[in-house]
Structure formats: structure tokens, C-alpha cells
Write a structure and sequence with these properties.
The protein has 361 residues and is of the alpha/beta class. The chain contains 14 helices and eleven strands. The protein folds into two domains: 163 residues, Rossmann fold, CATH 3.40.50; 164 residues, Dehydroquinate synthase-like - alpha domain (Dehydroquinate synthase-like, alpha domain). 52% of the residues are buried.
């Protein structure tokens, strides 16, 4: 086991990610003597949000958001702006996003867009939020055309991953969130895969050292990547920047769109990872064992490992609007081996369809 309770993100405005039980006690220090604080939270966290507000010296504006992806809309964004305007928020004030990935995505975009940018703190309450959404400064909302198509890069001043908050997380959300950690295992830190495979039951126990290690390693991978390439500079071939974190997301976002965002993000990304593993296998980039390891590790987490065989035409259409597409060229992050990835631009339509047939068959 490794000690990564404090992980530094050395991007444009360096900040720290604290990953331990009790990390929430650091929130008053981050807020400091700020006059006004907006606290955005998911409905299930109403009591927790109220308790946090009582512990702050600032004047706190409580903003309850719709649950999950329903929060990430233009209508909710405008409603948040209106509340900040009504309360007289200035550039010296601060926003706190308390919740899962959707809450931190929306909250970060509110902070990025209000007065062209105010400070914010993320307090992720899910594995997905901790490993993925709350770290790295990507913020945004969904529109009818696709997921996360509108947003901004805006870094938090701090991230508090209080592991004790996971104790009330529904099991399905826990399993889905672990997919993002497994993604980090395939692209950069294979120890994560070993930790899951050695004892999947313990890996899914929220009070276990194994789960804490997996979460911390996933965060550390993301911190290293975004420190080197915050704004996702265009990658070419084997030179891959932040785009490496999109492993499995091209098809995954298309699945989410087809499901009207009712499927958990992690579940969709897991489906996307198995698909791109099949694509890499057909292209001769990885062997059978590594391709099959995707399916076996995700099956051990109890998340979906296939999707509707008849969905390919709709998925292919949805992928055309993916953020990773350049012009009319569809781009995928593919493995060349464990921990080794590169960008594959414009694979042929025949091989794309054949990989889906193998994946869904």
C-alpha cells in the first residue's frame, strides 16, 4: 500500500487533493475569511450541506440542485447565476460543490462563468467524483446534442475527498465509480488492476484500505496527467496528453446519450473500454489476454460488460459529435499494451463496426 493522502496537482494554479476520512475538517481553512459562499449540493446531501454551512464563518447561500445529470443543464446553470446575482456575489467570493460528478461539473462551470471566474472548492461524495470529475478543472453541462459539449477549464483551489462520505453511497454507484479507477489502471497504473483482481469484495468495501488505495492511485494518475496538460492539447499518435483520460469515453458518452443519461457514467465508460479493447485487438495493437482482461476486471466489479447488438448505427452517429472528434475524423484512445496508449485517428468504418459486433456478440 502507498501513502497518497495529500496529492498535489501542479497545473496553472497548483492545489492539493486531500484523500482521507475526516478531510472535511479542512474546509473552514480553505474558505478562510471569504464574505460570501455559495454551497451547491445534491438533494440527498441536504442535511450534510446544512451542517457544513453551520461550520463556516461566511454568509452561506444554499443552492439545491436536481439529482445527477439533471443538474447539468443550461436551465439549472442560469438559475444558479440568478441566485448569485440576487445575493451580490463578487469576484472575492467562493463556491463549494458538494456531491457527485454531476454536481462538481455543474458547480465548477458556475464558478468558471460567474464574473469570468471565481474561486471554488470541490467536495466529491462519490468514487466517480473523487477519481474523475472533481480533479482536473474540467467543468461543463450537457445539451441535447451530447454530453459535456459546453464547458470551461477552471481549476479548484482545493479538493476534499473525505472517504467517510462513501459510507452512505449506494452500491451501484460505488461499483460504477470504480470503473474510472480501473481506467487509470489500464492507461497508467496496473497496480490498480491487481488490487481489484486480488480481492474484488474488499475492493468494494468502503472502509477498506484496498478501496482507499485504489481511489488514491486513480487520483494520482489524473493529477500527473492534468499537471502536464491541463487544457487537453491535441495529441498525435504516441504522444498523448490529457486525452489519455478519455479512454473508453468516446463510445461511453454515446451510450449515455442513447440512454438519455439514465445509465451511470461509469457503467457507460466500462462498456466503452471493452469496445476499444476489441478495436485495439482487431488492429493488432494488443493481445487476446489484455483485451479479455478488460471484460474480466469489470465483471468482477459487477458492472455491465456488453450493450445492445442493434445499437451500432445510433452509437456511430452519436460519436460524430464527441469532443474528441477533429473535423470529420473520429479519434479513439487505444492501448498498445498495458500502461501504453496512443491516439488512433480515423479508423476505418468496417473495423469500427466489426469491433462492435465482437464486443456486443
Amino acid at each position: 500500500m502507498t501513502d497518497l493522502e495529500v496529492i498535489r496537482v501542479a497545473a496553472e494554479r497548483p492545489y492539493e487533493v486531500h484523500t482521507r476520512a475526516g478531510a472535511l475538517e479542512l474546509l473552514p481553512d480553505l474558505v478562510g475569511d471569504t464574505e460570501r459562499v455559495a454551497l451547491l449540493y445534491a438533494p440527498v446531501l441536504r442535511e450534510r450541506a446544512s451542517a457544513l454551512a453551520e461550520g463556516l464563518r461566511a454568509r452561506v447561500t444554499m443552492i439545491e440542485l436536481p439529482d445527477a445529470e439533471a443538474a447539468k443543464t443550461a436551465e439549472v446553470l442560469v438559475a444558479c447565476w440568478d441566485r448569485l446575482a440576487a445575493e451580490g456575489f463578487t469576484r472575492s467570493d467562493l463556491l463549494i460543490a458538494l456531491g457527485g460528478g454531476a454536481t462538481t461539473d455543474l458547480g465548477g462551470f458556475v464558478a468558471a462563468s460567474w464574473l469570468r471566474g471565481i474561486r471554488f472548492v470541490t467536495v466529491p461524495t462519490t468514487v466517480l467524483g473523487m477519481v474523475d470529475a472533481a480533479v482536473g478543472g474540467k467543468t461543463g453541462i450537457n445539451i441535447s446534442a451530447g454530453k459535456n459539449l459546453v464547458g470551461a477549464f477552471h481549476e479548484p483551489i482545493g479538493v476534499l475527498c473525505d472517504l467517510s462520505l462513501l459510507r452512505t453511497l449506494p452500491e451501484a454507484d460505488l461499483r460504477a465509480g470504480m470503473v474510472e479507477a480501473v481506467k487509470c489502471g489500464f492507461i497508467a497504473d496496473p497496480v490498480i488492476l491487481d488490487l481489484v483482481e486480488e480481492d474484488p469484495v474488499e475492493a468494494l468495501r468502503v472502509d477498506s484500505d484496498r478501496l482507499a488505495e485504489i481511489v488514491r492511485r486513480g487520483i494520482a494518475v489524473k493529477a500527473r496527467v492534468v499537471s502536464a496538460d491541463l487544457r487537453e492539447a491535441t495529441s498525435k499518435g504516441a504522444t498523448v496528453g490529457r486525452e489519455i483520460l478519455n479512454y473508453g469515453h468516446t463510445l461511453g458518452h454515446a451510450v449515455e446519450k442513447l440512454e438519455n443519461y439514465r445509465m451511470r457514467h461509469g457503467e457507460a465508460v466500462g462498456i466503452g473500454m471493452i469496445y476499444v479493447a476489441e478495436l485495439a485487438r482487431l488492429l493488432g495493437r494488443i493481445d487476446d489476454d489484455l483485451a479479455e482482461r478488460h471484460r474480466s476486471v469489470l465483471a468482477a466489479l459487477g458492472v455491465p460488460t456488453t450493450y445492445r447488438p442493434d445499437a451500432w448505427p445510433a452509437l456511430r452517429e452519436a460519436m460524430s459529435l464527441d469532443k474528441k472528434t477533429r473535423g470529420s475524423t473520429l479519434r479513439f484512445v487505444l492501448l498498445n499494451g498495458l500502461g501504453s496508449a496512443e491516439i488512433c485517428a480515423g479508423p476505418g468504418e468496417d473495423v469500427l463496426a466489426a469491433a462492435y459486433a465482437r464486443f456486443a456478440g
